[in-house]
Amino acid sequence: MEPDTIRVRPPNLLLRVVWFILVGWWLTGILSAAAWALNATIIGLPIGLWIINRLPFAATLRPVESFYRVESGNVVSGVRQRPFLIRAIYFILIGWWLSGLWMALAYAFLVSIIGMPLAFWMYGRIGAVTTLFRA
Prior knowledge:
Elements lengths: L3 E3 L6 H27 L5 H9 L1 H6 L5 E6 L2 E4 L6 H27 L5 H8 L2 H6 L4
Antiparallel strand pairs: 1-2, 2-3
């Protein structure tokens, strides 16, 4: 069974473009650096991951999507994830440094006109690069 999605209507396209031009491009760079720095610490990891999941919103006001599934008669939030131990090992060995490279490359694409579509795609997948998070 596919998870049900609660969709929030994004703001007007013109507002999103103006937001990106005036605020989104530089705010995304600052938040990317802050998220990566927080992820490099154990204490800051939850906040860093929270920021990562909201980078597309910071850049373009794209709403954060919510997923729910029914499991044993109960409504459970989120998509079924890989086991915690596998995700933790992946993060320790690969995710922390790969996410830094991924976000730096995504930001480089973001500030170039030609690379923007790829940057938006990359920002939407930072959670998976960092911790194998399934959206």
